[in-house]
Amino acid sequence: MGIEDYTKVELLKPSFRNVNLVVKIMNIGSSRALFSRTSRKQHTLADAFVGDETGSVIMTLWDDQIRRFNVGDVVQIKNGYTGLYRGSLRLNVGRAGSIDKVDAEIGQVNTRNNLSETTHIQVPWRSSEARPFRRRKRR
């Protein structure tokens, strides 16, 4: 899989799955603690500002990922996904995905095309707009 086979940041939209990207880490925010609702374990997460020559987006780093990477690293994301957090587009790696440092060069990152600055309106799946075809009640 050559570097040209990867998705560019400018093409990302909410709810993408199986995303493969090569991005440069521009900034890593301060980490914060979060308790899992299911396992009751404490996790640490931090937001990283990443991008390529086409655009930039916020990526969530979890636990050991925060310590593994530094500002300026170029990373390869395989099988990632996008989602919305408070209407803002976020890139995530998840359990099924992987993130590794690579020896690729990304010169100038396009920070003007920040996809996380655009506010997306998330329609709840139970609303009538999300389900235009409703079943009739049987009598």
Offer a few descriptive terms.
139 residues; five-stranded mixed β-barrel; OB fold (Dihydrolipoamide Acetyltransferase, E2P); mainly beta
Largest sheet: 5 strands, mixed, barrel
What's the CATH topology name?
OB fold (Dihydrolipoamide Acetyltransferase, E2P)
Q: What does the average pLDDT come to?
A: 84
Output the helix-strand order.
EEEEHEEE
- Helix count equals 1
Q: Given the C-alpha coordinates, what overall shape results?
A: globular
Strands of the largest sheet, in order across it? 1-3-4-6-5
Instruction: Report the strand count.
Output: 7
- Structural class by helix and strand composition: mainly beta
Annotated CATH architecture: Beta Barrel
CATH class: Mainly Beta
What is the number of domains? 1
Helix and strand layout, with pairings?
Elements: E1 19-28, E2 32-35, E3 42-51, E4 56-62, H1 64-68, E5 74-85, E6 88-92, E7 98-101
